[in-house]
Automatic annotation (TrEMBL):
Residues 21-256 form the NADP-dependent oxidoreductase domain. One of its GO terms (molecular function) is oxidoreductase activity, acting on the CH-OH group of donors, NAD or NADP as acceptor. PROSITE patterns: ALDOKETO_REDUCTASE_3 (PS00063). The keyword Transcription does not apply. CDD domains: AKR_AKR5F1 (cd19133). It comes from the Bacteria. The record marks 73 as: Lowers pKa of active site Tyr. Transmembrane segments: none annotated. This is Organophosphate reductase. It comes from Paraprevotella clara YIT 11840. Keywords: NADP, Oxidoreductase.
């Protein structure tokens, strides 16, 4: 399994298992399957309401805690220094662990500065091994990275073949920050799984569209967390380290970029209103 070194020296798997939209009822089972298949990084969040399932699966796995990299995120209803501080302890309790390997701010709304200060404090106390942000566009990201004491180790943003985040990734790299993808399959939108270009490239290697898209992200240095509730798909998703895309393949896939989100624009007024309603 490939690993990346974060800007504070912490080693992180480049590929993990994401539990977004995995129900609390099935989360423990799915994470257990993912760990059996070989995943060693699990990505959850307070807003997913399944941190308990992740914690249960890790506890019952028999795998040394040091071998598992846990990621979670503070939701905007817990922003502000005091609320974020309390929520970090609550996430630790639900995950049944003394530390979280990477804790992110989930969205660039509400009192993100106070919340980030709570992350910094928890990091200094050893409760968090690394801290970062999620869904921070370049302006939001530069603001946090340039004004807070600790530069984010990771920025998790929508990243897939149709929204490639090339320029934002370059900006993150200026600060030593790693880009992490959510939605690496674009949730199947825009005809993702039947894309003829990806299918044609996959045919050369005996790989699926999904495997080609994941391999493309890996070769760009992107951290990925594909999700599936089916163990066979979990196996397929992790089976991407026995082939390498050529420079020509990489360039061809780069032409699929639309430069736009397939979900929502964080600079749009309606998006801001939507998140305010979720506080």
């Amino acid at each position: 399994m490939n690993k990346v070194i974060l800007n504070n020296g912490v080693e992180m798997p480049q590929m993990g298992y994401g539990v977004y939209q995995v129900s609390p009822a099935e989360c423990e089972h799915c994470v257990s399957d993912a760990l059996k298949v070989g995943y060693r990084m699990i990505d959850t969040a307070q807003a997913y309401h399944n941190e308990e399932g992740v914690g249960n699966a890790v506890q019952k796995s028999g795998i040394d805690r040091k071998e598992i990299f846990l990621v979670s995120k503070v939701w905007i209803s817990n922003y502000g220094y005091e609320k974020a501080k309390t929520s970090i302890d609550e996430s630790l309790r639900k995950l049944q662990t003394d530390y979280i390997d990477l804790m992110l701010l989930h969205q660039p709304f509400c009192d993100r500065y106070g919340a980030y200060r709570a992350l910094e404090e928890a990091y200094k106390e050893g409760k968090l091994r690394a801290i970062g942000v999620s869904n921070f566009y370049p302006d939001h990201f530069i603001d946090i990275a340039g004004n807070m004491e600790i530069v984010p180790a990771v920025n998790q943003v929508e990243t897939h073949v149709f929204n490639q985040q090339t320029e934002p990734q370059q900006i993150m790299e200026e600060f030593g920050t790693h880009i992490m993808s959510w939605g690496p399959f674009a949730e199947g939108r825009n005809g993702f799984f039947t894309n003829p270009l990806l299918a044609g490239i996959g045919a050369k290697y005996g790989k699926s569209v999904a495997q080609v898209a994941l391999r493309w992200l890996i070769q760009r240095g992107v951290i990925i967390i594909p999700k599936s509730t089916h163990i066979e798909r979990m196996r397929q998703n992790i089976d991407i380290f026995d082939f390498e895309l050529t420079a020509e393949d990489m360039a061809s896939i780069a032409t699929l970029d639309t430069g736009k989100s397939l979900f929502f624009d964080h600079h749009d007024a309606e998006t801001a209103r939507m998140f305010m309603e979720r506080r």
